[in-house]
Hints:
This protein is an alpha/beta fold. Helix content is about 25%, strand content about 25%. The protein has a six-stranded mixed sheet with strand order 5-4-3-2-1-14. A six-stranded mixed sheet has the order 6-7-8-9-12-13, with helices on one face.
Amino acid sequence: MARFVNVAIGQLGPIAREETRTAVVARLTSLMRQAHATGCDLIVYPELALTTFFPRWYMADQREIDTYFEREMPGPETRPLFDLARELSMGFCLGYAELAVEDGIVHRYNTSILVDKAGAIVAKYRKVHLPGHAEHEPWRKFQHLEKRYFEPGVRFGVTDAFGGVIGMAICNDRRWPETYRVMGLQGVEMVLIGYNTPVHNPLAPEHDHLSTFHNRIVMQAGAYQNGTWVIGVAKAGIEEGVDHIGGSCIIAPSGEIVAACATKGDEIALARCDLDLCNSYKQTIFNFDLHRQPRAYGPIVEQKGQTLMADGSKVAPRR
Ligand code: ING
């Protein structure tokens, strides 16, 4: 018996610094209507989908920084998205900057939520791998201050939803194999990943021409090695002068790309995802219980950085 989830990529083009949340929500609802017209159950939006990618700037004033965060979800400007989801009986995955007060303490996360067809939040994920740097580095063409503006999350969870086991990750998370394996060990069948990825990496410009290749290879590997679907969704195009890759795609548990966007603007791409295609990978080649050898994997959890080279040297990190 096939368990189909009809999934839409909800790729976004640039969001201008001054663009209001109301204007952005209008773009998101337009994509949701397009997806609904094709019979979709779920639409996946990018990371930080309500505002421009503000970590590209150094800001000293916390009040200015906090204008990019949501204190409530849904709030007045995002409620129309939840209302439409319920009206159309469509679920969605949305990335946004979350300001949460926990035990009287303010926390700021790079967050993603999963909303079901009734418009209810059924899962929340906080980005674990925060790339970039914490201090102003004026030498860069643009900053990447996620380590300054956000606190890291501490767990990769999965949720029963849309007839299967759904997980979430955000942007840089997709480059780390641990992200997929932790969810793979929880039986994940579909991982939803939004991203904002500049073409240019100031620390390694020699990688720039490979940015779309690296985008695909990490998600295709994660899908195949854990027998899961992966949905990767870009905020794409030249946003406030910084060119971001597109490359939004839907990847089957085989590792094959089955759908992709063709532009770097607001665009949907679709696939009819049969969650039962996960089974043959989880039950044979990646039958974890039969084939994994955790006693050989100790360094993966016990160590953060790499150990010294045999001659005592260490590859000097560029950061
Ligand atoms: N963006 C980028 C990403 O991991 C980055 C950061 C860009 C890292 C280029 C390395 C090279 O896709 C976010 N938001 O994580």
